[in-house]
């Protein structure tokens, strides 16, 4: 890591990254103290590297090296360019909540149009009172770094019984080049809620920026929630996102993530099934080209009996790109009748494309059904030939087959507008292929 | 005018020569039938004309409208008017038949410098064609050939042929798997496409198909060569006497 290190009066090492940002970071003095502790943890650990088991395939020291300074709060010009990006990336019918360079932008957001059952605050507002939201499990250094540096985020609470007809879309827009945005958001979903939450990461012309996001999502009993994350950052950006999810009883959760941008990305999800009878479905799609590196690392913790989890992870890997999927399923001793399965399917479009796949089952109960599987291969030559014999040029024939491959995941998205939106992103990715 | 000229074609698959110097000329407006025992190289010939990879042409040439077909990618051949109705059409899960048909038709038109079909025009055209071939609309909503019966797959091939309006139609055993009614409908569809500018090469094992699609010429293939050519009477002869006489000749 190349961050310059300065000594403070107390003799503790605090790098420029924090000291230069400290004055601008929101929060009471107590919050600042929490941040400082978190930063010390980060500094002690440093950026994760390949000798840390969980980061074996994603060596941030090698891939990212230098952390960029905190982005300045967006000025009028930044907000104007963000407005265009928001227009381009908004899902029709969704209620938008926009973060520009890590700061909530009220003028671009639909706070007033949120359903009455949805409580909204910014992270900044909550940090005026207490540091609670910064105190997640410090699983690794990037999470500590996020706690130290988080400049803003959205804090949502969806009241028991709310049936939200319109999805809520949190849009992260980057306008500042060569700068970092640290965001942290919380979504607390009450009992019996039906809701769709979208998170989009996009660039408004910005290049070579870094995103470190954390999401704390708690879902109550008897709920039906879809969470769709669309990482469509600039091709030279870095995006590290950590999700902490707890799921109540008899709840249905559909996660979908599609990565179609960023030079380096890591989505790490820590999902605890904390109530019986719940059904968790996770669909991941990595669309990677050039030298992109996309890592999805999920820990699904079956803490209670009688839950079902299904993870299907698809990767389309072109050129010299590298896709990583690490899935761990933990079944606690009394989590009997757990049914947990994960599957990875990699489509390799080039000889130099790389897919790493690390499934792990940690099973401490005896009456369970768990498993994992993986396939990797190229496009089927016979199918390609059939399409070409009907007049489709190679690239177009490939595109149809790739769309079919990822379409199986995209089909799981229930909302029509959202599904079309996601198909559009995949199509643009296909058009970018050289 | 000669539409297709196959001259002394030698083709290898995995180091083994399958076609040993095959010659065949098809003029505009003609219908040629190719018959011959299993493994004699009929599908190989059709694949090489369509441009399927995996075949090594070691000698000879194929001209289409005077141009060297072997220099073209399969999609260029299709855009120029070569169409192969496959003996074994593949299933393509996740690609809706309608999307496939529209993408293919427009790709061909684009390659020829023609304007692409608008969605309504395209739908109208597909509806017309599928109606005349008795292809249910429901079939078009599914993935390409996915879950189609053998006969339905064949009908889907004829439907594509009618939609793309190629100038050379090669039908590789389109009659296999079709029931009698379906055979008649498909043959009617093929006959409707007969025109002075278009030629057909009909590969079949059964004389019956040739009662519906009456050929101008019949060729017998054996062991990688055309060993006898004649008119439609030859097909009747074959029906009566089988191929053994030609096995010796080859
Ligand atoms: N990919 C391949 N690899 C090895 N041998 C092949 C391949 N394709 C064809 N052949 C061989 O080439 C010969 C000709 O096959 P082809 O499919 O052209 O015959 P056909 O005349 O169409 O037969 P049928 O009437 O059974 O359809 C056969 O002996 C077949 O086994
Ligand atoms: Mg054959």
TrEMBL record, chain A:
InterPro entries the UniProt entry points to: Fe-S_cluster_assembly_SufBD (IPR055346), SUF_FeS_clus_asmbl_SufBD_core (IPR000825), SUF_FeS_clus_asmbl_SufBD_sf (IPR037284), SUF_FeS_clus_asmbl_SufD (IPR011542), SufBD_N (IPR045595)
Name of a matching Pfam family: SUFBD_core
Origin species: Bradyrhizobium hipponense
SUF system FeS cluster assembly SufBD core domain boundaries: 174-405
GO biological process, alphabetically ordered: iron-sulfur cluster assembly
SUF system FeS cluster assembly SufBD N-terminal domain residues: 28-170
Gene that this polypeptide is encoded by: sufD
Sequence similarity: Belongs to the iron-sulfur cluster assembly SufBD family.
Protein name (record): Fe-S cluster assembly protein SufD
UniProtKB/TrEMBL annotation, chain B:
Classification via SUPFAM superfamilies: P-loop containing nucleoside triphosphate hydrolases
Keyword Membrane on entry: no
Classification via InterPro entries: AAA+_ATPase, ABC_transporter-like_ATP-bd, ABC_transporter-like_CS, FeS-cluster_ATPase_SufC, P-loop_NTPase
GO MF terms held by the record: ATP binding; ATP hydrolysis activity
Claim: Membrane is one of the keywords in the record: no
Domain ABC transporter residues, every copy: 4-248
UniProtKB keywords: ATP-binding, Nucleotide-binding
Family, similarity comment: Belongs to the ABC transporter superfamily. Ycf16 family.
Known role: Involved in beta-(1-->2)glucan export. Transmembrane domains (TMD) form a pore in the inner membrane and the ATP-binding domain (NBD) is responsible for energy generation.
Name the record gives this protein: Fe-S cluster assembly ATPase SufC
Gene name as annotated: sufC
């Amino acid at each position: 890591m190349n961050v310059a290190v300065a000594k403070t009066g107390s003799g503790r090492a605090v790098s420029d990254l924090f000291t230069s940002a400290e004055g601008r970071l929101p929060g009471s003095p107590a919050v600042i103290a929490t941040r400082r502790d978190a930063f010390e943890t980060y500094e002690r650990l440093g950026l994760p590297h390949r000798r840390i088991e969980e980061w074996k395939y994603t060596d941030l020291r090698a891939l990212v090296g230098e952390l960029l300074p905190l982005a300045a709060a967006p000025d009028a010009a930044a907000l104007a360019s963000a407005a265009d990006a928001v227009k381009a990336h908004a899902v029709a019918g969704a209620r938008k909540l926009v973060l520009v360079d890590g700061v909530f932008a009220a003028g671009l957001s639909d706070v007033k149009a949120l359903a009455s059952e949805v409580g909204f605050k910014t992270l900044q507002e909550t940090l005026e009172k207490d540091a609670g939201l910064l105190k997640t499990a410090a699983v690794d250094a990037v999470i500590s770094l996020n706690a130290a540096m988080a400049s803003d985020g959205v804090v949502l609470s969806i009241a028991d019984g709310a049936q939200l007809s319109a999805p809520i879309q949190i849009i992260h827009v980057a306008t500042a080049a060569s700068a970092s945005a640290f965001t942290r958001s919380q979504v607390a979903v009450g009992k019996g809620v039906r809701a769709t939450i979208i998170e989009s990461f996009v660039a408004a012309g910005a290049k070579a920026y870094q995103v470190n996001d954390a999401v704390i999502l708690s879902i109550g009993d008897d709920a039906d929630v879809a969470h769709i994350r669309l990482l469509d950052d600039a091709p030279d950006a870095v995006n590290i996102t950590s999700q902490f999810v707890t799921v109540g009883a008899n709840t249905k959760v559909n996660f979908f993530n599609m990565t179609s941008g960023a030079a380096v990305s890591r989505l790490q999800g820590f999902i605890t099934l904390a109530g019986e009878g719940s059904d968790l479905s996770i669909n991941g799609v990595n669309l990677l080209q050039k030298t992109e590196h996309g890592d999805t690392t999920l820990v699904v913790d079956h803490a209670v009996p009688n839950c079902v989890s299904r993870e299907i992870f698809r990767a389309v890997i072109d050129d010299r790109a590298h896709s990583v999927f690490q899935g761990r399923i933990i079944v606690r001793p009394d989590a009997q009748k757990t049914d947990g399965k994960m599957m990875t399917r990699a489509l390799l479009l080039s000889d130099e494309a790389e897919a790493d796949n690390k499934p792990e089952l940690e099973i401490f109960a005896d009456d369970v059904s768990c498993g994992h599987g993986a396939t990797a291969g190229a496009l089927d030559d016979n199918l390609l030939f059939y399409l070409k014999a009907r007049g489709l040029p190679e690239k177009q024939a490939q595109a149809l087959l790739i769309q079919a491959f990822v379409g199986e995941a995209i089909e799981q998205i229930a909302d029509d507008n959202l599904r079309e939106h996601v198909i559009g992103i995949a199509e643009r990715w296909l058009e970018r292929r050289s | 005018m000669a539409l297709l000229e196959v001259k002394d074609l030698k083709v290898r698959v995995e180091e083994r020569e399958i076609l040993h110097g095959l010659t065949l000329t098809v003029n505009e407006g003609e219908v040629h039938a190719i018959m011959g025992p299993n493994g004699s190289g009929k599908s190989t010939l059709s694949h090489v004309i369509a441009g399927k990879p995996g075949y090594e042409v070691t000698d000879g040439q194929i001209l289409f409208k005077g141009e060297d077909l072997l220099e073209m990618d399969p999609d260029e051949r299709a855009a120029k008017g070569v169409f192969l109705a496959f003996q074994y059409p593949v299933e393509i899960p996740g690609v809706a038949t309608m999307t496939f048909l529209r993408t293919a038709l427009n790709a061909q038109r684009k390659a020829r410098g023609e304007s692409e079909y608008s969605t309504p025009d395209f739908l109208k055209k597909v509806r017309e064609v599928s109606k005349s071939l008795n292809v249910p609309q429901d079939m078009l909503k599914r993935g390409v050939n996915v879950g189609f019966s053998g006969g339905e797959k064949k009908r889907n091939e004829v439907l594509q042929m009618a939609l793309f309006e190629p100038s050379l139609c090669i039908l590789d055993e389109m009659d296999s798997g079709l029931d009698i009614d379906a055979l008649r409908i498909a043959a009617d569809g093929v006959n409707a496409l007969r025109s002075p500018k278009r030629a057909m090469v009909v590969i079949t094992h059964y004389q019956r198909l040739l009662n519906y699609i009456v050929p101008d010429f019949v060729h017998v293939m054996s062991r990688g060569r055309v060993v006898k050519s004649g008119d439609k009477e030859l097909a009747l002869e074959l029906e009566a006497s089988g191929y053994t006489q030609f096995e010796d000749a080859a």
